[in-house]
Amino acid sequence: MTNDLAPVAQVPGQLDLIDMPATPAPSPVIAAKPATTTKLSGLTNHNTTALAGITGWTVTRTTAVYNGTPTAAHKAVQAHMDTVRAAEGGRAHGYTSLIAVRNKLKELSTGGSHPAVSVTIKRAKKATTSNGSKTRTGSPKARLTRKRQDEYTTAELVSALETAWAAIRANHKEIPAVVVIVGSGTASKQAKYGHFAAGRWQHGEQALAEVLISGEGLKRPVEEVFTTLLHEAAHALANVREIKDTSRQGRWHNQKFAALASELGLDTKKDDRIGWSPCTLRKETATTYKGVLTDLKKALIAYRHPEMAGGPTKKNNNAIACACQCPRRIRVAKAVLEEGEITCGVCESTFEPDE
After folding, report:
1. Region of residue 197 (left: phi > 0; alpha: psi -120 to 50; beta: else)
2. How confident is the model over 210-243, as pLDDT tens digits?
3. Are 352 and 321 in contact (CB under 8 A)?
4. How far is Cα 108 from Cα 197, in angstroms, rounded to an integer?
5. The whole model's pTM is what?
């Protein structure tokens, strides 16, 4: 056995190990932007300071962005609040500063909406394959469509309705700003697709009217939903011009309403039960609002089921139910009602049969 090592032959052109170039370090991996982000606006300095200490949040002076869905953002904030409360108590500054933030996020995580919270979904990009066809890339959450959503909120719907109302106002300057809400259209005895109520909201020194779009009516084509908005805009115009366009507690629409609806681009026809309330959208009006209809259609991805009808109610055949414009209701014997009009001392309108 020998301890001599045979010399290593040097191959011409080969580099010695000490002369071999070092293997370049791999380039740093840049984290992909999240498919969904949740943005809060209108925050105080205390809010943003408290959020800055939670993983996943990026804050500026009055806004904060979370890399994830509203549900995930809510869980992150709640978990941090639980930790602070356990260590410092419920009166700790870091805890109280996050209460308003948590409540805003909770509305979205449970299917509601909040004007100070917006959700942005990253669009999937199209890539060209080897055979030249286009395919979408990105995670499944980045490829949400009208038929594929992991969570639903009304934020996009309300935004689209508000945008549509703004477009109507742009073409008809007299129509006022309103608060647009989505709610039940079958909770009351008389089903409805929408309503207009003057002075229902207060914003500082300004009184704002309310326009409701019923969730049940969202099952209709987008043209009919937009027709409901124009219908309520006609009522808003009547209110501004101090025109009495309805009676019988707002159910009977008179010819003055028909004229206002026509001014906004609707055709009306008379119904023996509710007057000139039924409206249809003119072709030229649909052309005018083509872009609005396209955006609104994208937001009509859910609708509300009607309320369950209650059992039969016992009617009092000895009196007639009447209502004014307030509305207040009274029951009056038929003979008394036939003697003359009964006027409400509050709204100065006449009590008329409710049915």
Report:
1. beta
2. 999 999 999 999 999 999 999 999 999 999 999 9
3. no
4. 26
5. 0.50
